[in-house]
Amino acid sequence: RVGGFLRALLRAANALLQQRRYHAALAVIKGFRTAPCDYGAKIRAPHALVMTFLFKSGSFREKLKSIAQATYAHSRNLAYFVFTYKGLLAAQSRLQGKKIPFHSFLAACIGGWLVFGDNNPINSQIIMYLLSRILFGLSRLAVQKGYIPQPRQDPFPLLAALVWGTVLWLFEYHRDTLQPSLQSSMTYLYEDSEVWHDVSDFLIYNKRTDSK
């Protein structure tokens, strides 16, 4: 009996999922589920794991707690944003009877303000991640639309030179303007490599601990 009931329940659920009139609402629910369970955990957890064990001090338990908190905050914000964005998108489309490009922009602006408006390390990392890709995307769009001419040569080498030149200049002379995690990465690569005491912190460790 239980097996038959479960099969009937599964068939009913599958039938409901095929109903086009419920598609917008179901998409909101699936997006809310996908953001924390799939994307947030798969992307944020490995990043937090590497950054925490590489650069942060503290006990093993404290590091695990930090990883869990970062993963939870990232996943939660993504879930809230997807829910808000897709909900507003569906509402606008229903009110106007059709979907237009401005709907996406407005819904995302509202979601960004409500969910990512708090200036904290997690939100800051996400916004900077998006900003870099927006600049690339807008540059390509400007070429596609003919607003700027197609470069005769690949501009990427020049871009790479300017980006690295600027970030190292900021690191050397205006370090406080850079994000803390970037400061830690650059300190690890460019400053700790100038200090050593013996073979252990020359070939094996990047930096000798105080106990040595």
TrEMBL record:
Pfam (any one): Tim17
Signal peptide span per the entry? none
Classification via InterPro entries: Pmp4
Gene Ontology CC terms, in alphabetical order: peroxisomal membrane
PANTHER family listed in its UniProt record: PEROXISOMAL MEMBRANE PROTEIN 4
Q: What is this protein called?
A: PXMP4 protein
Q: Organism classification, top ranks? A: Eukaryota, Metazoa, Chordata, Craniata, Vertebrata
What gene codes for this chain? Answer: Pxmp4
